[in-house]
Amino acid sequence: MSIYTHGENDTRLSVRVPTLTGLTITEARQKLKASKLNIKIEGDEGKVVSQEPAGEKSVEEGTVVDVVIQKEDS
């Protein structure tokens, strides 16, 4: 797991949060890593059903995106 941080003299860049709804946790992690964002997961398995901050919102690199994953009903 990578955690993106900055030193006190670094300037944080603004990035757009990817939309994660419907993705597996592996796919969500990959998208957030590519955007230099961190993840906090609630749930054990399934697909992303919600996220905060919302997809397409601009945030600073290193921001934690909270995601809720849930098993799909069969």
Summarize it.
The chain is an alpha+beta fold. The chain is built from 1 helix and 5 strands.
Mean pLDDT: 90
What Rg is obtained from the alpha carbons, in whole angstroms?
Answer: 13 Å
CATH class: Alpha Beta
State the shape: elongated
Instruction: Provide the structure class.
Output: alpha+beta
Count of extended strands = 5
Largest sheet: 3 strands, mixed
Assembly category: single chain
Question: Strand portion, in percent?
Answer: 25-35%
Question: Helix and strand succession?
Answer: EHEEEE
Total count of helical runs of at least 4 residues: 1
- Parts with pLDDT < 50 across at least 5 consecutive residues: none
Query: What is the distance, rounded to the nearest whole angstrom, between the alpha carbons of the first and last residues?
Result: 31 Å
**Structural domains: how many:** 1
Helix content range: 10-25%
The CATH topology corresponds to Trypsin Inhibitor V, Chain A
**In what order do the strands lie side by side in the largest sheet?**
2-5-3
CATH architecture: 2-Layer Sandwich
Describe the structure.
The protein has a single domain, classed as 2-Layer Sandwich (Trypsin Inhibitor V, Chain A). Helix content is 14%, strand content 32%. The chain contains one helix and five strands. A three-stranded mixed beta sheet has the order 2-5-3, with helices on one face. The chain has 74 residues and is an alpha+beta fold.
Which terms would index this structure?
74 residues, alpha+beta, Trypsin Inhibitor V, Chain A, 3-stranded mixed β-sheet, two-stranded antiparallel ribbon, 1 helix, 5 strands, 32% strand, elongated
